């Protein structure tokens, strides 16, 4: 297959870079004004490190809020770690950027959503769809009809 530009992957990298930049700023300067974040992530993704009891409670996906109480926000090239309070119990979390599914800052109505991609399977399905479209018969051609504009003029 010919090499192509993977716009979907490039867009995901750019959006994750945006999240990294925002979190780096918050780690250095704190949350400005009314900003706060809802971050949903895949708890089964490689590199996610959360307490066993959290994983049992959220076996697939979890949403955390960075707003009033969080500490130790550390941002790396690949993800971030933070300690959050769950019922007066501080818990450290490690979340790779590749695990993030949504990032929302409701104070300014900003949000990002990452669709999961299976990669090669999608490409094969797209190729099948294209082949089906190419194999579909063309509609029968009809003779062109010439219409005089005089037919529509008011008299």
Description of the molecule:
The chain has 155 residues and is an alpha+beta fold. Helix content is 29%, strand content 27%. The strands form two sheets. A four-stranded antiparallel sheet has the order 2-1-6-7, covered by helices on one side. A three-stranded antiparallel sheet has the order 3-4-5.
List keywords for this structure.
single chain; 155 residues; four-stranded antiparallel beta sheet; three-stranded antiparallel beta sheet
Sum up the overall morphology in one term.
Answer: globular
Elements, N to C (H/E): HEHEEEEEEH
- Whole-number radius of gyration? 25 Å
Reported for the largest beta sheet, the result is: 4 strands, antiparallel
Number of helices: 3
First CA to last CA: what distance? 63 Å
Q: What is the overall pLDDT average? A: 80
Oligomeric state of the chains? single chain
* Number of beta strands: 7
Q: Name the structural class.
A: alpha+beta
Uncertain residue ranges: 119-149
Strand order of the main beta sheet, please? Answer: 2-1-6-7
Strand percentage lies at: 25-35%
**Helix content range of the residues, please?**
25-40%
């Amino acid at each position: 297959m010919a090499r192509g530009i993977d716009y979907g992957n490039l867009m995901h990298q750019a959006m994750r870079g945006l999240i990294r930049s925002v979190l780096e700023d918050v780690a250095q300067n704190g949350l400005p004004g009314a900003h706060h974040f809802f971050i949903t992530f895949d708890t089964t993704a490689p590199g996610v490190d959360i307490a066993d009891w959290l994983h049992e409670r959220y076996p697939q996906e979890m949403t955390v809020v960075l707003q009033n109480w969080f500490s130790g926000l550390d941002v790396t090239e690949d993800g971030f770690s933070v300690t959050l309070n769950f019922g007066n119990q501080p818990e450290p979390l490690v979340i790779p950027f590749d695990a993030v599914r949504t990032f929302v800052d409701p104070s300014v109505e900003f949000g990002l959503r990452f669709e999961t991609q299976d990669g090669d399977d999608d490409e094969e399905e797209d190729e099948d769809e294209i082949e089906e479209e190419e194999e579909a018969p063309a509609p029968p051609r009809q003779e062109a009809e010439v219409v005089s504009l005089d037919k529509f003029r008011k008299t």
